[in-house]
Amino acid sequence: MTTESVGRAGGTGSTRGVGLAGGVGSAGSIPSAGSAPSAASIGSAGSIGSGAGIGSGSGVSSGAGVSSGGSAASAGSAASAGSAASAGSAASAGSAASAGSVASAAGVAPAGGLGSAAVVGAAVMAHPRRGAQAAELAAGLAGWGARVVTDPAPGTGPGALRTARAAWAAVAPDATHHVVLQDDVVPCRDFAARVTDAVRELPDAPLALYANWNSWNGAATRAAALQGAAWVPAVPGEWTPSLALVLPRADVEALLAAVPAEVTGPEPDDTVLARELGRRGRRVLIPVPHWVEHADGASLVGNDVYGPRHSACFADDTAEGPDPAGPVAAAPDVLVHLFKGRVQLVLAADTAAPRRVSREGYLRATGQEGRGRGRSARAVAALRPPSGLLGALCEEIWYAAYLMALHTPPGRAPGAGGDRVRLCLRSLVLGGTADRADLRLWARHRVGPLVALAEEGLRAGFDDREAYGRPAPLPPERLAALPDAALIWSRPLTLEER
Known about the structure:
Number of strands: 14
Radius of gyration: 21 Å
Structural class: alpha+beta
Largest sheet: 5 strands, mixed
Number of helices: 15
Helix content: 25-40%
Oligomer: single chain
Distance between the termini: 37 Å
Strand order of the largest sheet: 4-3-5-9-7
Order of helices and strands: EEHEHEHEEHEHEEHHEEEEEHHHHHHHH
């Protein structure tokens, strides 16, 4: 096994994956296949880390169900006619819904209605240069009658939306749910069975089966893993993950009605999905762990500058496995985001758009300044980083895990050391250094000790949460004065600015 190779649970090494002890995953960034950066975009997977950024300060709702003014859609707002969810049935803040209340927490109809008669169809959206790869992927989904839908105009520039629109239009006449996968994904074991079970459990929910490891949704995935949840709502203000997306038929039809058949312009599909699903109050759920991985390989739209792109927590890398009927985490109001080696908090509270603050500023604002400093310093010193810059990175990794634990609801954390939690810490380290080659190479070389450092940060956070409680939310006026979190992509904080 090379340093790029990882052991799968129960399988052999792979050059694409992110394994556990001993293996080395690769670091990654955020682009979606076929999408390109756009100055006007909110931050497609293709525009991560670019100067164009994620969009205007006004923010745009994602499929997570947040619309204008930052007010969250009620738990029931995602339900179509006949759906039984109501705002009162949503999981309370900081708690995960029980398995029996998955549908209500998700804002969807309960299982046993439409889900009992679910018919799944699929399409693979492909660039002509990946025709063979797409055909192989579709052949593995033969039971769904999966079709390969090729970019109709590959010579006219970036065409993710153009190809995606055609793939969504390929919905089978009798399908209650349509799955669109991009041509460079790797499904987990028993993928089709898991999706079929999921649409029966959550028949009215859009399901995004992947989140990038250095995205806000990747941070939300880690928060949900610490709670032992099986699903997490997508984060308001970020694009809708579109590498593998399941939509109920009504959502497919609404999307096709909203997007002209003759698509022009460079707008990415994940941005359009966020806008259209958010406009209708639809909340996207993401499974924990994710059910597809992003395959290694050259990007067709110039995204290699962002490094390899991987899942925040891939199902085949954990022995615990997915649970389509498991609990839904409450939408996190504080996300710990490690990007370019620097921790920043994304505060997804009741504002027009999520806000951002450095971890030092957050600890100061919440009265936590200085807390954990001695324990962090000792843990970092024991690792003996070879330079001041890498020592600063180690401190950021420790505090990222510390803050994750500090915001995990009491009684919901399995503790540092669980298989799924350790995998999430691994993706925190590798994804959080993905966009800086100088940090990424060392993090890959020292990934084992850095994951152990993060585990120590988790333990310290759990200890302080029990001793002092969860930090109180910032007052609305203080929250509103913070910068728009979209600036993370266009003007990220760096280690040199500390």
